[in-house]
Design goal:
The chain has 144 residues and is an alpha+beta fold. The chain has helices at residues 12-17, 33-46, 54-73, 115-122, and strands spanning 77-85, 88-95, 125-131, 134-142. Helix 2 runs antiparallel to helix 3 (54-73) and helix 3 crosses helix 4 (115-122).
Length: 144
Amino acid sequence: MNHLPPPSEAPLGAQRHREDTPAGRYGAPPGSAAEARDRVRELLVLAGVGLDSVTAADALLVTSELVTNAIRHGYGVTAFQADLADDVLHLSVTDANPGLPAARTGTAGHPGGYGWPLIQRLAAHVECSPRPDGKTITTSLRLR
């Protein structure tokens, strides 16, 4: 497997132009959760994971929540990486907000608050890494 540095360590040009990796994982950051899910879907197919499986649903839900939270609360996605290694999907999403995620309870006037707990429940590993220009959240999900 081709091991590349995480987006936080890769030069900016490498993040945008690394098309030599499977599924173009270092392409421009996705502009939407749907675009990120498409990239992860491609990796799941390459790994032989059925797209109608609970495993795929969990992976796609975590992808959606990470990217949606970065867009809504993190001032946008600045880097995105999805990799497979030893039947584990590794996702990293970087945004421009240095504030770390916090659980909150939604209200009738301000619904929501389910995404971060879902990510923590579904992923085998979650790590938040503060950066001078924001943060990177990295997750690992077992595919088998």
